[in-house]
Every structure is written in C-alpha cells, then in structure tokens.
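note to self — DONT lose this again. spent like an hour looking for the file last time. sequence + predicted structure for the chain T wanted, 115 res
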Amino acid sequence: QVQLVESGGGLVQPGGSLRLSCAASGITSRFYDMAWYRQAPGKQRELVVSITPDGRINYVDSVTGRFTISRDNAKNTVYLQLNRLKPEDTAVYYCHASVGHSGHWGQGTQVTVSS
C-alpha cells in the first residue's frame, strides 16, 4: 500500500529556514499530484502548495516567495524548502499524494517558529 513519511521539522527562530522531506513508497503510477498542507491547533487544514507530475506549482499567497516545493520522481520524494519563517507558519505540516482515485496522507512533521 501507499505510505508517506515526512521529516525535517523542528524549532527555529523567526527568519530561519527548514527543509521538509516526504518519502513515498508503494506508488506504481507515473502520474500523481503531490501537495503540502499544514494545520495549527484549532484551525482547519490548509493547502500550502501543490505540484503536478509535469511540474505545475501553486502556492498559497501567504508563503509565495518564501517556500519552494520540488520533487524527485526517481526517488518518489517531494521537498519543501521553508525560508524566512514567521511565527504564523507554526503548524503540523502534512504531505499528500493523489494517485488515481485515491488520496494518501503522511503522519505530519511539526514546525515551530518562535523567538
């Protein structure tokens, strides 16, 4: 079955950087969308950025210019580079894959931005 495992979260000061990774296994299709979501306590899960198999990318306005998504299809891995982090970026970040008719979630990785 499909499994997604996130890593790279941590505690950073405002203005700092992190690089998140999402390693996927069990995906046999060549065509699947990947995305990063985030969720703070008491808030709805929010789509941060998505990337299609051919590289089309959409960011939410609040992270445009600060976050960068990329994917390595040979490794079935997607990355999210977080730069110039702000306290409001604090959340659990989740990886998501859309494969055919199915959606799959990782367990999440905590990002905390605090002085």
